[in-house]
Amino acid sequence: VTHSIPACIGSMTINGKQLDNESPVSIFAVNKCYEIVQEGTFFDGSGFAALVREGYKVRSDVNITLEFRTTAVHGVLLGVSSAKVDAIGLEIVHGKVLFHVNNGAGRITATYEPRGTNNLCDGKWHKLQANKSKHHISLIIDGNLVHTDNPYIQSTSADTNNPIYVGGYPADVKQNCLTSKSSFRGCLRNLVLTRGQHTELFDFSRSFDLRGVFPHSCPGAEH
């Protein structure tokens, strides 16, 4: 077994003596347990999850779906970049969701801005779908579609070869399609990336680098 148990452990005794959970000698990636939890992964606003160590190749088409819940108006959702300019990025900036794509010729952005009393940072679950099909990009939030014109119609492939960073990224990593450096604070679930016939559901407990991220449980409400 190479990964930690996604669970809560309490009232542990060894040889009849109860262990003191409150003042451990050392601690790493252990969060408190919540009486009310929801399915999903909790991001505490300090780090990120890194997936696909060998690099994820977006190329011409990708469809990203996920659900998020947050009360913060800024935060990185997802970024996949390259050593060049090719990249994709999803982020929340000033309460808006932005989907950026650069196929090599220049960055284009689809922006979803909530209307009226709608608020994406209300601590409730919201569904997101971001789609890149060659030079076309679109964003669907809670069933509302936004798409944008792309002047660079000859450029169709985002030739990425870096890991997928979710919820943030390390300070020494370049992200060509993210404007924010703020790590996401809140919960994510059901992250699925589809290329053609190949669909992947990502389990954050399998991340090769996990900082400030607690897989498999979200606090039932913001605390």
Automatic annotation (TrEMBL):
CDD domains linked: LamG
PROSITE patterns given in the database record: LAM_G_DOMAIN (PS50025)
Pfam families, per database record: Laminin_G_1 (PF00054)
Source organism, top-level taxon: Eukaryota
Domain Laminin G, residue spans: 38-218
InterPro entries for this protein: ConA-like_dom_sf, Laminin_G, Neurexin-related_CASP
UniProt xrefs under Gene3D superfamilies: 2.60.120.200
Name of protein: LAMA1 protein
Annotated organism of origin: Leucopsar rothschildi (Bali myna)
High-level lineage: Eukaryota, Metazoa, Chordata, Craniata, Vertebrata
